[in-house]
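Progress note, project year one: complex with benzoic acid.
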Amino acid sequence: MSLRLGDAAPNFKAQTTIGEIDLYEYLGTGWGILFSHPADYTPVCTTELGKTALLATEFAKRNVKVLAVSVDPLDKHQGWVKDINETQHCDVTFPIIADADRTVANLYDMIHPNASETFTVRSLFIIGPDKKIKLMIIYPASTGRNFFEVLRVIDSLQLTSQYSVATPADWKSGEDVIVGLGVSTEDAIKKFPKGVKVVKPYLRYTPQPNL
Ligand code: BEZ
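Model obtained:
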């Protein structure tokens, strides 16, 4: 059965480039990103894993642990990491799961047979500290993902998990946010002392509350 937002992220143990990992233990009390790529030694995947490595401090700042997966074996991952580091000028330190038996790919429904019978598609799951799935994106093999967008979503998820707000289209950290629909304007004025701008009764903005 396929996963949906709010479902518990299935736990697993897997061999990775940094040793055996239990997903829940690896994530601890923080946030996680589990993302699949179709195959090692392929160009788009090389750029994706390189970009992820280059953004390591951004993920760490947000208390997010990253975990990549494909159905290639460990020795192949290890050889490929050297190419990623060389060509993308990075240092891949996050684990890459060797999922040759497709345990993780099947648990997370990462093989879409009408796209490819053998390779995982570009699935990405954001997992919250409660081990629930907060976001899923699925891209085809031909399109590399935008990891700044992934960071942007994490900023939104972390903010909206703490405050009764939502974030508008194209929002970036630092910009005004939307007062949650469940909050009356009277309560919003008390909750958000930086001010509430009422555009419509259902469309109210306030400065980002955690800055
Ligand atoms: C790539 O990463 O470039 C790629 C992988 C599998 C199929 C197509 C492209």
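The radius of gyration is 19 Å.
The pocket of benzoic acid is lined by residues 38-39, 42-45, 119, 141-142 (CB under 6 Å).
No further modelling is planned for this target in the current period.
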